[in-house]
């Protein structure tokens, strides 16, 4: 039970980030959980959690999503996700931790540099492909998807809704591959089920904090949390490889 409690704490912290910024759950949850369990299991638990909460998000936000962009990006994600899952099954746990730290670093750079991509069919499919690749490898579809939506004229409320629904869709796309690879088992299902309340409570708490912070404040908080997570994960990965 101690392990489940620690996993739930990691999920809660990541969920606060999710509620605070509208994205970033997997960017924080997977590296944090990989300090406690194997990175491949951390990826599986994060994807299961996003599937569990995603249906609620879809129902609540269906009127706000950018449907055209979601369709095109999902097509790309269907292509990229199997490649990410293949890499997930071939890398050692410590190598996975290094990869996770690098991916979080990419997300941080995108946030800090405000990387933007132009709208368009090819760009949307390409963003979806890399989001799927990141999703299958590390349950982290965020950086490519965020970069795409920030590069369009989509209003903030529609961007946030589209991202949350897209993360749900990429998680659904990843499920069959994870099952085929033998990553979904009784233990991962139990860990995800016990951590679900932490995800819901953390998302609510993050939303409350968002209402009290200006744009600069919550952006700084998100970047700081991701930086700490990436540093800890990289240090453990490097120590394991040495």
From TrEMBL:
Task: State the annotated membrane topology for this chain.
Answer: Multi-pass membrane protein
What coarse category fits the chief subcellular location reported for this protein? membrane
Asked whether the keyword Membrane is assigned, the reply is yes
Transmembrane parts of this sequence: 29-49, 69-89, 95-113, 125-149, 161-181, 188-206, 218-239
As for subcellular location, the record says: Cell membrane
The record's keywords, sorted A to Z, are: Cell membrane, Membrane, Transmembrane, Transmembrane helix, Transport
Entry keyword annotation includes Transmembrane helix: yes
A single Gene Ontology CC term: plasma membrane
Task: Please give the family membership noted in the entry.
Answer: Belongs to the 4-toluene sulfonate uptake permease (TSUP) (TC 2.A.102) family.
Stated name of the protein: Probable membrane transporter protein
Q: Top-down, what is the taxonomic lineage of the species of origin?
A: Bacteria, Pseudomonadati, Pseudomonadota, Alphaproteobacteria, Rhodobacterales
